[in-house]
Amino acid sequence: MGRYTKIKIISRENKKGLSGVPFYKNIKYPSIALQQSDVYVYTEEGDRLDILSNQYYGDPTLWWIISTANEFLKQDSYYLPLGVQIRIPINIGQIQADYDILNLRK
Fold first, then answer.
1. Residues 6+ apart with CB under 8 A from 51
2. Could you give phi then psi for residue 89, rounded to 5 degrees?
3. How many other C-beta atoms lie within 10 A of the C-beta of residue 35?
4. Which stretches of 1-106 are DSSP H helices?
5. Can you tell me the distance from the alpha carbon of 25 to that of 97, in angstroms, rounded to the nearest whole number?
6. Which SS3 state, helix, strand or coil, does residue 7 take?
7. 3-class secondary structure, 60
8. Domain residue ranges in the chain
9. What are the pLDDT digits (tens) for 54-66?
10. What are the Cα distances from residue 22, in Å, to 3, 18, 42, 100, 104?
11. Taking a C-beta distance cutoff of 8 angstroms, is the pair 66, 88 a contact?
12. pTM for this entry
């Protein structure tokens, strides 16, 4: 499931009272604590966040979990630097629940 599926869409009126372009409410990401079940891998040529997410979670849209767990990564790209060690959280149920709590409140 995409991370924006349940996120509220906002449309504000502009100065002339006309409805503006709709946009998603700001997204907040949970802090991801270290766990003993975390997997550490060294990136190889061709690795991308969405591909690793699909490999470990069976869902490429959960790439943001790996990205958030590795704050040193460039946060606006699927691509990973070659030969760096990254952490892949395995128990993602609580991470997803925390994400929902942060973002689905009205």
1. 60
2. -65, 135
3. 13
4. 49-57, 63-69, 93-103
5. 18
6. coil
7. helix
8. 9-103
9. 999 999 999 999 9
10. 17, 12, 40, 21, 18
11. yes
12. 0.76
